Amino acid sequence: MDEPVKVEVVNSLANSEPGAMPVWQHLEALRTLLIKSLGVLCLGFLITYYFSDKVIEFLETPLLSVLPVGERHLYFSGISDKFLVYLKVSFYTSLIISSPYLLRQGWNFIAPALKERERKFAVPFLMFGSGAFFTGTVFAYYLVIPSAYRFLLNFGGANEKPLINVVDYFSLTIQLLISMGILFELPVVLLLLGKLGVIRQELLIKFRPQAYLGLAILAAFLTPTPDAFTMCLVLGPLILLYELSVYLVKWVIQD
User: Fold this and answer.
1) How many CA atoms lie within 13 A of 169 on its CB side?
2) Residue pLDDT, tens place only, 163-198
3) For residue 124, what are the CA distances in angstroms to 121, 167, 246?
4) Which of 201-210, 218-227, 232-241, 246-255 has the lowest mean pLDDT?
5) Is a pLDDT exceeding 50 seen at residue 13?
């Protein structure tokens, strides 16, 4: 009695629909995707590590530009701190420059399971998402980080002198860059939900006050300084992005 049931289960898993790819072929495709992605990520890491001095210098600029002349230095106390920072920065840089390829590989893996309508708008959304993340990191690098660090360095009396640890600085800087990049994905997420029919323009308008409150909490949480100016510097673009999403959602649904 059990043997026919087992055979039926195996056949249904192997080929649940006519023309469907067997389970082991899905696993093989996933294995190939992971190997290729890991290879590209490692290659990107080697390239970024080769240019790590330039990357480090670029990331240090927002801080060094607001330090007094003659005090523009970062310090490390652990003997391996500087080396580990270079590895960390090289990894994140590699992840960013490899992201278009990684997203493309992920798209190739899930595309066969999507309907034709879903395939048409998936690629533009991926491109829009990459551009939004990059815009967020640029905004953080040129506006948020210099303003926040200037406030923190000038806070308090004139007798205190900064002795900034290289590990702490790069951890905070990378966190801010990635956080702002993710926050700028807000229109992408709302547009995707609108395209899938989860939300509508009327819903975004109805819950606008609650959305503003949530964005204000996010801005306060991610801003490393307690001053209102830096918080508003983060909150302002988020509100604009939300308002932009309110109108784009209606356009996407009608498309």
Assistant:
1) 25
2) 888 998 999 899 889 888 888 888 888 887 887 778
3) 6, 37, 19
4) 246-255
5) no
**Tens of pLDDT along 70-84?**
788 888 888 989 999
Indicate whether 117 pLDDT > 70: no
216: CB partners within 8 A, 6+ apart: 231, 235
Predicted structure pTM score: 0.77
Tell me the C-alpha distance between 44 and 48, whole Å: 6
Cα–Cα dist 60/173, whole Å: 9
Q: Give the per-residue pLDDT at 59.
A: 93
Give me the residue label for tokens 């240090």: 60
Tell me the three-class secondary structure of the chain, residue by residue: CHHHHHHHHHHHHHCCCCCCCCHHHHHHHHHHHHHHHHHHHHHHHHHHHHCHHHHHHHHHHHHHCCCCCCCCCCECCCCCHHHHHHHHHHHHHHHHHHHHHHHHHHHHHHHHHCCHHHHHHHHHHHHHHHHHHHHHHHHHHHHHHHHHHHHHHHCCCCCCCCCCEHHHHHHHHHHHHHHHHHHCCHHHHHHHHHHCCCCCHHHHHHCHHHHHHHHHHHHHHHCCCCCHHHHHHHHHHHHHHHHHHHHHHHHHHHC
Sign of CA dihedral 8, 9, 13, 14: negative
